[in-house]
Structures are given as structure tokens and as C-alpha cells.
Backbone:
């Protein structure tokens, strides 16, 4: 396991590489080319510049999060082949520059969804939270504005701003795309890119849908053990793997996360580890990483990663906003650094017990 932190680049992030370097045991960052639009080819030159900046700070680029997928690929339009060809070129360029891990998601229209980006906890910290009842009252085509208004002036991590301008059009375009169609389109994409991934040793790691159920009537296909199994079996190549996100899967208490991790041994290439508090169906707050602060058992989760011989990067995921920090929702320095340290501590304890 390699402990890493997500970094949004010097242009957008309030957190610096120098700060990340001082988190004990943190060896690398997970980052992307933040100005690249979905569907564009990433040049080797641009990838190299990004890598050199990170390496100059004494860290490595442990993976890309994300190379986003153009909507035409998700919808299955005839133009998808052009965008898949571009994606393949990007993967080749990443592989040639020695980057071997790409996280992506196949969620239509929105990436992760929350009803509140700064809900106050009793200790005065603020967290991201989700309440289906509140979401049901929002006009989906106004979701960007709602989230934006709530984000303290920071960009929404992971949300693709170019989608903002065409939100109504996007909902129209996804109208005929149900779960089966979306699944077929994912498999079409994966089959097309796998030979390149195998040739250059690039592992694709699909992110879980967040939350793990349909929101605004949009289809969800990477949200539980059965669906993940189906996707892995449809393209049975090691390079077709997972970003095992405990917070996304954990939004549905029916998902047994340690069991899911163990079941997909060999295909879990990247871990997002965080905790949340369940209040009932469709209602949860994010929490500190500490098990006792939320509903997930972080020891059991880290033990499962340990037992499968996890070699890839793990990163603490969304943190609370604490100590007066102002940063992108979920992505401040302080609570994620606490999370990394806590997860490293669990790992050390498991490792020592195992080697006794
Ligand atoms: C949220 C992140 C997601 C993730 C994408 C992967 O905080 O985990 O935005 O990066 O879904 O493409």
C-alpha cells in the first residue's frame, strides 16, 4: 500500500506539495491535468511538466484522477469512436511517461452528489452530507448552481465545469440511456482501450457511483458487489479494475465493504478510504476517518486491503473542514492529513500483528 493524497494542482489547490510532503508516510499525489477537457488528447509534454513539478517536491505521481470520459462515450453516440481514439492516445502518452494508474467514473451528468457541502457537526467542524429528501426537492438542471452556492467559492472537486453550460441538453441526451445501455457503453469503451492498457501497463480503476443509487432518475451501474462483478467479468483483464471507494459504496449500508474488497482481490488498483454516519435510508453525513466517529469499521476495511496484498495507492478521502481552514469541499489539508496518519497507524498495527 502506498499512502497518497489527492492534489488539484498549483493553480487550483489551497494545499501545496510541500505540505503534502510533510504528512508522515505520504509518498505521492493523485492528480490530473486540470485544464484538460474530456475528449482531449493529453500531450506527453503536458504530462511531463506535471510529473516534473511533483517530483521536484520529493513526491511521485501515483496515479491520475481522473481522465474524464466524454459524454458521447457514455451515451453511445456515433462520435464516440473519435473520443475513444483520443482517450487511447492519452493512455499511450501516460504509459510512455511511466504513469500506470487511471481513475475514472462512468456516472452520467453528475459526478458525486451531495445536498450540503458544509453541514455543521456538533464539534463545529463541517462536512459534506446527503439527504434524499432535500435532493428530491432540487431541480436537477439547477444542481450545479445549488452546489456552487454552497461551496464557499471553491470549484467543486471533480465536477466538470463544461457540463454546466449544457446541463439541460445533457439530461435530454441521456434520456434513452438506461442501466443496460450505460453498461453496454462502458463495456464497449473498456474493450476498445484494454489492448493499449495492457501494452503500456496502465491500470484502469473505475470509481464507484456516489451515492450508490440512482439520483434524478440517472442510471447507476457501479454500486454493489453484483454489478461490479458483472463489469469485471465482462472484460476479464487485470488492467480493468477498481477504485474501491469506501464512502461511495458505504452510502448503502447493504454493501459489505470488507467482503467486496476481498472478493475483488487482484482487481482493486486504488483505494479511497473514508467514513460516514448513516441516519437511515438515503441520509448520511461524512465523518472523520476514525471508526468511532462514523458507521464504517475502518480497521476491518484496512484489514481487507491488507489481506488482498494491496500494492496500489490508497488515499484518505473527503475530510471535514476543521481548525478554520478554507478549502475545496472535502479537500482541505488538516483532516485529510489526520486521516492519512490514522490509516497508516492501522496498517502498521495490522502488519506488526501479522509478522509476529
Ligand atoms: C470525489 C471523488 C470523485 C472522483 C471521480 C473519479 O471526491 O472521489 O470526484 O474523483 O468520480 O472520476
Residues:
Amino acid at each position: 500500500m502506498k499512502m497518497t493524497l489527492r492534489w488539484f494542482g498549483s493553480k487550483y489547490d489551497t494545499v501545496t506539495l510541500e505540505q503534502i510532503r510533510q504528512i508522515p508516510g505520504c509518498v505521492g499525489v493523485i492528480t490530473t491535468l486540470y485544464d484538460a477537457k474530456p475528449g482531449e488528447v493529453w500531450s506527453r509534454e503536458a504530462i511531463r511538466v506535471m510529473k516534473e513539478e511533483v517530483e521536484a517536491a520529493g513526491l511521485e505521481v501515483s496515479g491520475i484522477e481522473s481522465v474524464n470520459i466524454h459524454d458521447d462515450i457514455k451515451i453511445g453516440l456515433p462520435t464516440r469512436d473519435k473520443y475513444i481514439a483520443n482517450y487511447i492516445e492519452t493512455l499511450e502518452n501516460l504509459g510512455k511517461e511511466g504513469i500506470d494508474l487511471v481513475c475514472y467514473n462512468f456516472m452520467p451528468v453528475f459526478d458525486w452528489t451531495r445536498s450540503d457541502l458544509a453541514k455543521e457537526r456538533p464539534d463545529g467542524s463541517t462536512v459534506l452530507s446527503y439527504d434524499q429528501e432535500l435532493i428530491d426537492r432540487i431541480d436537477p438542471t439547477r444542481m450545479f448552481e445549488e452546489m456552487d452556492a454552497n461551496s464557499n467559492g471553491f470549484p467543486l472537486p471533480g465536477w466538470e465545469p463544461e457540463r454546466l453550460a449544457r446541463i439541460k441538453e445533457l439530461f435530454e441526451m441521456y434520456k434513452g440511456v438506461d442501466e443496460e445501455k450505460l453498461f453496454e457503453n462502458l463495456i464497449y469503451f473498456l474493450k476498445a482501450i484494454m489492448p493499449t492498457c495492457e501494452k503500456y501497463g496502465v491500470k484502469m480503476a473505475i470509481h464507484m457511483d456516489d451515492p450508490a443509487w440512482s439520483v434524478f432518475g440517472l442510471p447507476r451501474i457501479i454500486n454493489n458487489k453484483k454489478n461490479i462483478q458483472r463489469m469485471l467479468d465482462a472484460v476479464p483483464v487485470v488492467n480493468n479494475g477498481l477504485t474501491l471507494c469506501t464512502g461511495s459504496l458505504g452510502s448503502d449500508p447493504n454493501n459489505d465493504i470488507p467482503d467486496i474488497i476481498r472478493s475483488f482481490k487482484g482487481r482493486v488498483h486504488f483505494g479511497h478510504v473514508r467514513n460516514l454516519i448513516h441516519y437511515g435510508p438515503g441520509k448520511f453525513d461524512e465523518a472523520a476517518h476514525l471508526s468511532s466517529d462514523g458507521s464504517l469499521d475502518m480497521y476491518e476495511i484496512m484489514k481487507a486491503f491488507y489481506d488482498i496484498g494491496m500494492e496500489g495507492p490508497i488515499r484518505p478521502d473527503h475530510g471535514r473542514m476543521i481548525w478554520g481552514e478554507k478549502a475545496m469541499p472535502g479537500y482541505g489539508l488538516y483532516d485529510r492529513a489526520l486521516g492519512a496518519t490514522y490509516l497508516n497507524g492501522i496498517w502498521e498495527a495490522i502488519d506488526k500483528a501479522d509478522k509476529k
In short: The longest helix spans residues 179-200. The two ends are 20 Å apart (CA to CA). The pocket of D-mannose is lined by residues 65-66, 103-105, 111-112, 157-158, 207, 272, 318, 330 (CB under 6 Å). Residues 2-354 form a domain with the TIM Barrel fold (CATH 3.20.20.150).
